[in-house]
Specification:
The protein is mostly helical. The protein has helices at about 1-20, 25-35, 40-65, 70-90, 95-115, 130-145, 150-160, 165-185, 195-215, 220-245.
Length: about 250
């Protein structure tokens, strides 16, 4: 019971923090759950469920505000819905140490983009095929690593020349497709504690709502992202240390 309470509180706090930064909490929740004793694959499934819960809350709020461009977002959502479960399925055949190494790279990449990433396009490629290719590639990697994909999707779309504000709103809608379809795949071969899942999901939904609400009170985004980046760096170094001492 104490473990459920701890995991629920962690999910709430992380979801509130990462929602204020405009992204999902799964990327931080997964390694923390693993450090606390959960199998890494189980932690990925729990993180996906929590991440989907958070972003669904944000998506509903964005739909109500009528700020979502469905013509832009549907190809990405469709491809992530198809390719994320494929990545999740392939994850069981890839040795866990290699998936963890990729996850460490994702942590370093995400933290670095939060601190130093520029909201400037490197190229301008708005052909109709681009959203399909982006959705397929990011969806597969998201499923393999057990994340929603927002930390990969946002910088990639911005580098391709898409409007950062449109990207931020769109990703909050797209991520649940990848997260829920990946979770369903993991659930087919990973033993899950459903009480733990719903406790974490409840914390994520509450934290996501609070974080999304506070984000619109003009909180200093740069400071929030610095905190998020520091946390991700710490988690990455902790995972690296685990490899060295294993």
């Amino acid at each position: 019971m104490n473990d459920y309470f701890l995991f629920g509180i962690l999910s709430f706090v992380l979801s509130a923090l990462f929602s204020m930064g405009g992204t999902g909490s799964g990327i931080a929740l997964i390694p923390i759950l693993h450090f606390l004793g959960l199998d890494f694959t189980v932690a990925k499934a729990v993180g996906l469920f929590a991440g989907a819960s958070t972003t669904i809350t944000s998506s509903i709020m964005n739909i109500k505000r009528k700020v979502l461009d469905f013509r832009f977002v549907w190809p990405i959502a469709l491809m992530m819905l198809v390719f994320a479960p494929l990545g999740a399925y392939m994850s069981q055949y890839v040795p866990a140490k290699y998936v963890k190494i990729l996850f460490i790279f994702l942590l370093f990449y995400s933290a670095t983009m939060m601190l130093f990433g520029k909201k400037k396009a490197l190229i301008h490629s708005h052909t109709k095929i681009v959203p399909f290719l982006v959705g397929a590639s990011v969806g597969f990697m998201a499923g393999l690593l057990g994340v929603g994909g927002g930390n990969l999707l946002i910088p990639l779309l911005i580098m391709l020349g898409y409007d950062p504000k449109k990207v931020a709103v769109s990703v909050s809608f797209v991520v649940p497709f990848a997260a829920l379809s990946s979770f369903a795949t993991y659930a087919s071969y990973v033993p899950l504690d459903w009480k733990l899942l719903f406790t974490v999901a409840l914390g994520a939904m509450g934290g996501g709502y609070i974080g999304n609400y506070l984000m619109h009170f003009k909180l200093e985004q740069k400071q929030i992202k610095k905190i998020m980046a520091l946390l991700l760096y710490l988690l990455a170094f902790k995972m690296c240390y685990g490899f060295i001492t294993a």
